[in-house]
Design brief:
The protein has 7 helices and 10 strands. The protein is α/β, with parallel strands linked by helices. The chain has a domain of about 160 residues: Rossmann fold (3-Layer(aba) Sandwich), CATH 3.40.50. The strands form 2 sheets. A 6-stranded mixed sheet has the order 6-7-8-3-9-10, with helices on both faces. A 4-stranded antiparallel sheet has the order 2-1-4-5, covered by helices on one side. Helix 3 packs parallel to helix 5.
Length: about 230
């Protein structure tokens, strides 16, 4: 599903250049649930941004669902993002003046789906994350855990090939974190490929594979015995 070969990325800082990713090689099969770990500055956010087509590598290749991701202008990148990827962010990134159901329906609007079908689909995904009763509420009326569920429903609504979750539990207490990870595990059980960037060991253990980055290189990549979040909820 994801194939990355010899990926390099540097940033110019004044006259100097900071080499952030130094030859990353990673393959992710369909249906995997992978944690990407590393301390601040290890390159994990840069890698996620490249996977999410929000940034471009200097060297190396990135193939997503057999499509080479290269030479993307903003229009093409946006089109591929809509087609392939769902994003879940630490800060939820919901639109404050839109209701829960309107937030979930947003990706479908960009996919030019008609209003009636958009709303029906959005309601289905709200049902899936257990928040159908909150459809008409604004984000300000929801708890952190509810906001993250709405964000997950929105990421799923476009039926992406891959979900990219950037510190999805970073703003939540531990009980709510486990509830969100339980939802992520259930979605993965249905066959969705998910990558979770996290710095929390207990969250990483709830994935099936852990990739550790340090100073721009992968220092560890191993399958783990998955801890089920439902055991903690």
């Amino acid at each position: 599903m994801i194939e990355i070969k010899d990926l390099h990325k540097s940033y110019k800082i004044g006259k100097n250049s900071l080499h952030v990713l130094k030859g990353i090689n990673i393959n992710v099969e369909e249906g995997e649930l992978v944690a990407i770990m590393g301390s601040s500055g290890s390159g994990k956010s840069t890698l996620l941004n490249i996977l999410g087509m929000l940034d471009v590598a200097d060297e190396g290749t990135y193939t997503l669902d057999a499509v080479p991701i290269k030479d993307l202008d903003e229009t093409k990148a946006a089109k591929y993002r809509n087609k392939f990827l769902g994003f879940i962010f630490q800060s939820f990134n919901l639109i404050n003046y839109k209701t829960a159901v309107e937030n979930v329906a947003l990706p479908l609007y960009y996919q030019k789906v008609g209003r009636k079908e958009r709303t029906e689909k959005a309601m289905q995904y709200l049902q899936k994350v257990g928040l159908a009763d909150w459809a008409s509420h604004l984000p300000s009326e929801l708890s952190g855990g509810q906001k993250q569920r709405i964000a997950i429903a929105r990421a799923l609504a476009a039926e992406p090939k891959v979900l990219l979750a950037d510190e999805p539990t970073g703003a939540l207490d531990s009980t709510t974190s486990y509830e969100v990870m339980n939802l992520i595990q259930n979605i993965n059980d249905e066959g969705k490929t998910i990558l979770v960037v996290t710095h929390e060991n207990d969250i990483a253990k709830m994935c099936k594979r852990v990739v550790r980055l340090k100073d721009g290189v992968i220092i560890e990549d191993e399958k783990v015995n998955q801890v089920r979040a439902s055991d903690h909820v």
